[in-house]
């Protein structure tokens, strides 16, 4: 069978893909295992997504790894997740580096255990000159908090006179988000069958194409990713215009 990869048009790739990697707990439960078993098996799917992205040269991939709300899960699950994140970063560091990927972290990282923060920071530092693609991990990330922080930073600049109210526009606002160096999200994928955003990149997905898959995250593979890109390329992104207007420009 032909791979979806061969059907992808290299001239129409999304610049930024974001993934809500959901369904680990259900995947484990369906096998009579504990939720943490699902988190362990999620790592292979992360590798698949990163490799697929790298193979077709999508420059930005953001992975929702741990939300600000996930801190409310049982303590042992949070501990296991933090250890897994830490271990995975150490184990995958060389691979990420050798692929030429640049690592970024977005979120309220102060809340993370020192060990996780240090390993993350190390990977961010050693990959800072890499140019083959950007891998962005959303860790302890909540979009409402990000937006509120931006509002607070901007209002304090207005208060101090560094910025006037008239100067505030979309661009200025974006410059105060964690994602200021990244393009807007073109394609958002969520696995597990849930059709919700769960406080992820609310501003950045304003015009993203959304795809919700009935696959649990540990089962996600490269072919699923390529299929999402293929489906994305078959959408007409109108950005408010009419179909006729878009066709006139060709
Ligand atoms: C996603 O899988 C992983 C994290 C949120 C950290 P879940 O753990 O949410 O799995 P389900 O949704 O309960 O199946
Ligand atoms: C969203 O999944 C967060 C991550 C995938 C990291 P959740 O499983 O936490 O989302 P809700 O709570 O079901 O909306
Ligand atoms: Mg979930």
UniProtKB/TrEMBL annotation:
Its cofactor is Mg(2+). It is an enzyme of class 2 (transferase). Substrate binds at residues 23-27, 35, 39, 67-69, 71, 73, 190, 196-198. PANTHER family: DEHYDRODOLICHYL DIPHOSPHATE SYNTHASE 2, DEHYDRODOLICHYL DIPHOSPHATE SYNTHASE FAMILY MEMBER. The keyword Acetylation does not apply. One of its GO terms (molecular function) is transferase activity. The keyword Ribonucleoprotein does not apply. Its EC number is 2.5.1.-. This is Isoprenyl transferase. It comes from Kaistella yananensis. It holds the Pfam family Prenyltransf. SUPFAM superfamilies: Undecaprenyl diphosphate synthase.
């Amino acid at each position: 069978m032909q791979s979806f990869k061969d059907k992808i048009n290299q001239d129409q790739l999304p610049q930024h893909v974001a993934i809500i990697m959901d369904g680990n707990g259900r995947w484990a439960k369906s096998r009579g295992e504990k939720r943490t078993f699902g988190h362990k098996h999620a790592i292979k799917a992360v590798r698949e997504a990163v490799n697929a992205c790298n193979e077709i040269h999508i420059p930005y991939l953001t992975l929702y790894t741990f939300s600000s709300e996930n801190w409310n899960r049982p303590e042992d699950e949070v501990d296991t997740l933090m250890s897994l994140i830490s271990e995975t970063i150490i184990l995958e560091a060389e691979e990420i580096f050798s692929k030429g990927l640049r690592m970024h972290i977005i979120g309220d990282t102060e809340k993370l255990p020192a060990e996780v923060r240090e390993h993350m920071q190390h990977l961010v530092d050693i990959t800072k000159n890499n140019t083959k693609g950007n891998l962005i991990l959303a860790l302890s990330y909540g979009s409402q908090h990000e937006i509120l922080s931006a509002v607070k930073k901007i209002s304090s600049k207005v208060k101090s006179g560094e910025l006037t109210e008239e100067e505030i526009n979309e661009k200025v606002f974006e410059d105060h988000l964690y994602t200021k160096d990244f393009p807007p999200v073109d394609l958002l994928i969520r696995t597990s069958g849930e059709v919700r955003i769960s406080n992820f990149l609310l501003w950045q997905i304003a015009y993203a194409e959304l795809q919700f898959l009935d696959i649990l995250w540990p089962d996600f593979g490269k072919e699923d990713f390529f299929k999402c890109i293929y489906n994305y390329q078959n959408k007409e992104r109108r950005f408010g215009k009419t179909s006729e207007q878009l066709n006139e420009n060709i």
